[in-house]
Amino acid sequence: MSSLLLDILSWFCLLAGGLFCVIGALGLLRMPDFYTRAHAASVTDTLGAGLILLGLMLQAGLTLITVKLVMVGLLLFFTSPVAVHALAKAAMKRGLLPLLADAGRTSPRAPNDAARRQQGLPGQEGAPSKP
Amino acid sequence: MFAAATVALLITVSLTLARAVLGPSVFDRLLATNTIGTCTVLLLAVIGFLTGRPEFLDLALVYGLLNLVGTVAVLKFFHDRKPIERPPENEAAR
């Protein structure tokens, strides 16, 4: 009975983790600029990875395997925010502008200006706006 | 059930690979590569359970370490470079 409960719980965690991974990848594919894509990728890095590892831990029980899974989880928990923070900082330092909704006539729907902003070149107004 | 998680992770990797190929700037490609690395760590763990060989978790740990080091190394490489994207006049072709 208890083993069945653990199985159901771990299946739920695995399926939800896979679902969140796919949601994060969809966001990564469809979001309009780099910074929103980084936000979408964090869904895969935190919720998807955490739920999948939790499901595997429930399957493994109290063994050395669970210790290794905790280590993998801690590693992902600490390193992926560091990597994405370094990426966002480097992108900002090199002049990749975030896509802003209220930047005058540069609406996010305007494809020409959006592409220019994605390339890190200043828009028509020249000075980069604060995020 | 491990097979379902594996399939979900493979879908994730393929969608992310599309972003890595399409991504207009270097940073988009790096972000996609980082996400592919995270998914590879998870995929190694799940495949270890799927085939009944949990020793794969050691490989997952090493791959997670290499993932961070790889991303930061490529970032150091692109830190002070000129942008290598296509010039703006080729925008329509993209």
Number of discrete domains of chain B: 1
Category from helices, strands and their pairing of chain A: mainly alpha
For the sheet with most strands of chain A, the description reads:
none
- Could you name the ranges of chain B where pLDDT drops below 50 across 5 or more consecutive residues? none
Extract low-pLDDT stretches of chain A.
Answer: 122-131
Number of helices of chain A: 4
Spatial separation of the terminal alpha carbons of chain B: 40 Å
User: First CA to last CA of chain A: what distance?
Assistant: 54 Å
What is the average per-residue confidence, as pLDDT of chain B, rounded to a whole number?
A: 84
Structural class given helices, strands, pairing of chain B?
mainly alpha
What fraction, in percent, of the residue positions of chain A are helical? over 70%
The global form of chain B is flat
The percent of residues in helical segments of chain B reads over 70%
Count of helix runs of chain B: 3
Give the helices and strands of chain A as they follow along the chain. Answer: HHHH
Task: Write up what this structure looks like.
The complex is a heterodimer of chains A (131) and B (94). Chain A has 131 residues and is an all-alpha fold. Chain A is built from 4 helices and no strands. In chain A, helix 1 packs antiparallel against helix 2 and helix 2 runs antiparallel to helix 3. The longest helix of chain B has 25 residues. Chain B has one domain. Chain B has 94 residues and is mostly helical. At the A-B interface, helix 1, helix 2, helix 3 and helix 4 of A face helix 1, helix 2 and helix 3 of B.
Question: Key features?
Answer:
heterodimer, A: 131 residues, mainly alpha, 72% helix, 0% strand, B: 94 residues
Give the helix/strand layout.
The complex is a heterodimer of chains A (131) and B (94).
Chain A (H helix, E strand, L loop, with lengths): L1 H29 L3 H27 L3 H30 L17 H8 L13
Helix pairs in contact in A: 1-2, 2-3
Chain B lengths: L1 H21 L3 H25 L5 H23 L16
Helix pairs in contact in B: 1-2, 2-3
